[in-house]
Amino acid sequence: DAGITQSPRHKVTETGTPVTLRCHQTENHRYMYWYRQDPGHGLRLIHYSYGVKDTDKGEVSDGYSVSRSKTEDFLLTLESATSSQTSVYFCAISDPRTGTSSYNSPLHFGNGTRLTVT
Amino acid sequence: KQEVTQIPAALSVPEGENLVLNCSFTDSAIYNLQWFRQDPGKGLTSLLLIQSSQREQTSGRLNASLDKSSGRSTLYIAASQPGDSATYLCAVKGAQKLVFGQGTRLTINP
User: Fold this and answer.
1) For chain B (length 110 residues), average pLDDT per consecutive 10?
2) Residue to substitute from B1, B52, B100, interface A, most A β-carbons within 10 A
């Protein structure tokens, strides 16, 4: 699992509550990503980070925020959870030092967090 | 906008067969293409990464090819085993971030 731990692994929460998912890596990789995986949509990028305090939006960022105060931790917050955010959330990491260039470093995934919003 | 398609969505073959999984993409301006496998309830495991300048990559019984001009990649699995049963996804890296296909669910029957 490339030294990636996601917590919690499962969570059930109610509509309107804030939720924070954590991704912790031990690989000292520079880049970190949050994806969601849904039937019929595949994997979609929510937010990503190229370094501490350096984050940017992906294609489905509405309703989500992220923070990265340390290299090893990347937090995803659902500010006010909705049923449409029921999904499996994956954290991924990569580092240009592991590939032939910054564009050719492989992506490694955690085991995911299954979130249900009721 | 890059679109990635994997056909078929599901495939079932007997153990021992050689098989090919397909991935097609619409924009040939890519940096690389990566193949992953996903087991139920798990994350994605990186199998092979092919750079845009490469034609193929091999790892054990797996061989991935890339034809940028036609927008196609194939993943060849030799001498399939029940442990190869999983969903296989391809992902293309271009000017956008990685764009994933929806995967092919592969079942190897003993």
Assistant:
1) 93 97 95 94 92 94 96 98 97 85 96
2) B100
